Amino acid sequence: MKYGEQFAKESAPQWSLHNIDYNSLKHHIKVHTTKDQATAIAIPGYQDSALRVFEDELYRELCRQHDRVDMFVASKADEIARRLQHLSGQIRRLLIHCAVRRNQISPKRQRRFAKYENELLQCGTDIQSLQRFVGAQVVAFRKILKKYRKWTGSSTLGSRFRDTVLSHPKSFTKRDFAPLATEQENLLAMLRENVSIDYGASSPFTTSSAPSIRRNEQVSPSETLVGPTPQTTAYWNEYDNGSEAGEEHNGDGAYAIYINPDEDMNFPGVSALTAIFTSPIKKVNRWMRGKQQGEHEQLISGQSSHYGTTDASYFAHPPGALLSDTEAENESPPASGRRGSGYASSSEFPAGYKAYYAALPSLEEQQLMHYKERMLFWGTWACFGVSFLLMGIAAILIETGRHKMRLEVDAGVTIGIMTSLGAACGGLGMTLARQERMRWATVLSVWALFATTCVLNGILLVLVVRNTPLPT
């Protein structure tokens, strides 16, 4: 079995979308290192300039693959850490509340303890899946580098990528998941030590199904032990046991109405009145700007980076590091299982980056494409502006030109009209050269301006011919 088919099974199946593109990278290397191919550039045992160019390109692609996986591992580890922190607070508060009450746990709290235990078990499963996911990515990177060394005979790429990226302490390959696993095991042990949950109870209201708190406190001889009050069998009814009644014991689980003090307290109808005036403005703004395709829309805003493009600066200035290590430690103390400020964050990609992960144009090519679209857009309107300006100048010359210099005036007007038509044609050509899909309003506006320019310039030419005296 090929490793490309085995890779998806060894990794976490639920996160297969975030695996590195093993098959695409393997095919890319094979195409560029096989004889009698249109793009064959490498000969085993011979290092030429074309091979160095391809090696640098492949190194940048491997770095991009590493960045993407590193971001996913960091976000998933932070998510598990936040879940464990939230569960720890919930479990401790509930245990303290039950210990203070000194009575048997109600069926409602029993279900809550069972829910917390299931969530802790799910966190443990996610930690194991994340460890298996990271191990599969490391093996995939090693096999890709082995394929490159086998088909090119060059070991420089493998040494360069391992020493600069994979062996760096901030790489996801060096991430330690032991603190997360230890915290999950401690919380689960604490929950099971203090609470015994009976899952075989048929009814939550029977006394046999109510678990008890195992208290470690000692009872003094002067204290009188009072047994729990036996519960009498009763039928369920909506009035006493409905969802509006809250907790059936002591009323400590009743519902409460929460009012957010930071919420804007506007008069009723103010938002509707504001929408009447703002909706036309929003529609005009949508008409004025061009419609973007789904894959061209902004996914993650932030500054562009050169993450992983050079050997020395791969981890020196990672894309997510907006602060230095000292500043990040002073401003935000690290949580359990979280990374330092040098890790990549979700704000590292430039606007419009296509996150399809596989054999795509490089980041520089996409930025160049966006820059070209912007230049064509502004060039279109600049050409039409120059066209109308020249038409205005030509019209003024026709009306105010001297009769004694009529020949020179007509020549200048003719040159201005021809230049105006050329500028209009240039603006139309820039619009047609754009690859981005535009709104119908924009296309119709450009064609309307072009038609208007042609008609007005034709009228000016007719006026020039009429004012020119015929030879006698």
UniProtKB/TrEMBL annotation:
Top-level taxon of the source organism: Eukaryota
Protein location: Vacuole membrane
Domain SPX stretches: 1-162
InterPro entries in alphabetical order: SPX_dom, VTC_Complex_Subunit
GO BP, sorted A to Z: polyphosphate biosynthetic process
Region annotation Disordered: where it falls in the sequence: 206-232, 318-344
PANTHER family: VACUOLAR TRANSPORTER CHAPERONE 1-RELATED, VACUOLAR TRANSPORTER CHAPERONE COMPLEX SUBUNIT 4-RELATED
Protein name: Xenotropic and polytropic retrovirus receptor 1
Species of provenance: Echria macrotheca
